[in-house]
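Lecture notes, unit on protein representations.

Consider one protein chain, 338 amino acids long.
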Amino acid sequence: MLSLTNFNCILLCYLLYISGSFAAKSKCEICKDVEKNFHEGLKNTAKSNFGGGNTNWEEKSLGKYRFSETRLVEVIENLCQNSEKECHTFVEEYEELVEKYWHSVFAKNKGTDFFLWLCIENVKVCCPENTYGPKCKSCPGGTKSPCGGNGKCDGAGTRSGKGTCSCDTGYHGDMCDSCSDGHYEEVKNETHTICKECDASCKSTCWEAGPKGCDECNDGWKQSEEEGCVDVDECEFDSAKCSEDEYCSNTVGSFYCGKCHSACDGCTQYGADKCRACSEGYTLTDNTCSDVDECSVDANLCAGENRKCVNNPGSYSCSCDEGYIEKEDKCIVKPKGL
């Protein structure tokens, strides 16, 4: 049975999910949705007419369907396709402006963009691309390449925001025109700076690509006059960091310790042929530690009636023949029902 506590928890989670899924949109976002649905409505009604059967008479008497009130009503009815409350409120508030656009702009083929006319110039909830704030100021760097082309302008396209630049990875500065640590400047001209990531062998800063461009070598690399920063083989100098039953394996800029093969008592790499010595239960054969078959070496192992020796890797075990079970170190007939 679902307890009241569990029910309240489920209800709370559901409400949080709903609030997250249907977070309130800004007026600019709503206006963009209306503009999108407006053009979708024009597309869906492009081949319609009054449906009376006598199209010639209708066009002469009532005007062409293309610019008719009938078509306008059909378009407006579908401006909020998802039935969002905010959208319907927006359309109710600015329906007269939509009608004004229809009659004074669209019907006269003036070619003015609906988004520009409604959202930017009249309702004034959005701004042109790469402008921001109540007065639609240009983003830093201008509208063609804001933030040096290397970042995003806060509030761009809306009537909000501060217009500050949020730089892409590898860039910094008010105009995102400088390279951050770990990057070097590859190209710079009047409008654009391109920053590339330093080689992994560089500690922090560099002046060109590759290990030769490092100002300082990263941990796990050392300076070479000919090659720049080269990888240090930690295993060659410091293999003692691994325990006795592990081997050291060098990686780029570091190393790791791996477990030796079960046949080995100490090893240089993984494998029964990489052992420093063989573990108990193994013997060295052709430079490889091979399992000793204890059952073959000593026939007296697991002595007793109905008893057999089973070889295992590095050891052996005793078991009873089929139909027998072990009891008090003897193999007896398995009782019925077991």
